[in-house]
Amino acid sequence: MAIADVPSYLHLSSADVEEIAYELDVIRQDIEDSLGAKDAAYIRRVIHVQRALDVAARLVIAGTRSKKGWLLGTAALAYAKSLENMELGHNISHGQWDWMNDPEIHSNTWEWDMVGYSAQWRHSHNYRHHVYNNVLGMDDDIGYRWLRVTTDQPWRRAHLLTPLRNLVLAATFEWGIAVHGIRAEQNNDATPGAVAEQKRKLRNKIARQMGKDYLFFPALSLRRWRRTLAANFTANIVRNLWVYVNIICGHIPGGAETFDPAVVEDETRGEWYLRQMLGTANFEVNRLGEISGGHLCYQIEHHLFPDLPSNRLPEVSVRVRQLCEKYDLPYNTGPLALQLFRTQRIVHELAVPDRFRG
Predict the structure, then answer these.
(1) Tens digits of per-residue pLDDT, 195-242?
(2) Residue-wise DSSP of 229-289
(3) Predicted confidence (pLDDT) at residue 184 exceeds the cutoff of 70
(4) 315-332 per-position pLDDT tens digit
(5) Between 37-63 and 67-82, two packed helices, what is the crossing angle to 10 degrees?
(6) What GO molecular function annotation could you give as one example from this UniProt entry (predicted)?
(7) In angstroms, rounded to a whole number, what is the distance separating the alpha carbons of residues 70 and 50?
(8) Distance from C-alpha of 49 to C-alpha of 62, rounded to nearest angstrom
């Protein structure tokens, strides 16, 4: 679908679209002008809390004998891993904190705690996904090659396995991200030498990550290495599931549009903004859920301003919602459970051939 064919767009004039762009630019400028010590203190505080929670969780896992102790430690470790992956790794890699000029908290130096190599992800995600959000054939994130999420994608027999493929993708999401980065390089007409180098870097990252989670930390636990090994494995699965929920609920719920490649031809800034707004969705969670999910419950605002610090998205969302009301545009949001239900309904309904659906 082209941007001009979206029903919720038809009532807007060209002047309206440009005025929307102007008002969104004002929001961006206001946030950029107000960035300062409070924001820097926030991200440093999150880093300290995440690291302290990680250490405390591992001590509880290895230092207690009870099942309750193991469950508590594993839950804390899963939260620490989610915090590092989403609020830290994802957002720092977007350059949200580059304005601080702190080499430790910079998009070019941060390496996240997962098997994917962050530099590969930055290109496939920051460029191909965010610039071409939901443009078929240009955004590699649509369905992650495993799920059919729109009727514009041709049906294949493999889609009959969607219930299984969906569960595997959710439980192993970090691996999907890692492989996805390599595929994005290949799709971007990279030379064979460049692809081979990227694969080498990915193999090295996987070896380091697997060694840390499944060799180093279990070895530190001595006789209790099995508890630590099981806890690390479980925490990684839980983290993967939570990341999957955040990503899929921000892009697939009913009302999130997909677009024809022609949409990017001569696309104005206002039309780009509209495409980001109409191709994403928000969901509602508590404060702990917001932070551990990298504030991607504000996916609309994140796609409008991907390099603005995540802690400012709640206040940005108030102004974006007001803008949507002003111009009679949809603001796709709802409780997490409802948005998750909508995503699962879509991917499972589209798993069968179109002729069998009503």
Answers:
(1) 788 889 899 999 999 999 999 999 999 999 999 999 999 999 999 999
(2) HHHHHHHHHHHHHHHHHHHHHTT-STT---B-GGGGTT--HHHHHHHHHHT----B--HHH
(3) no
(4) 999 999 999 999 999 999
(5) 150
(6) oxidoreductase activity, acting on paired donors, with oxidation of a pair of donors resulting in the reduction of molecular oxygen to two molecules of water
(7) 19
(8) 20
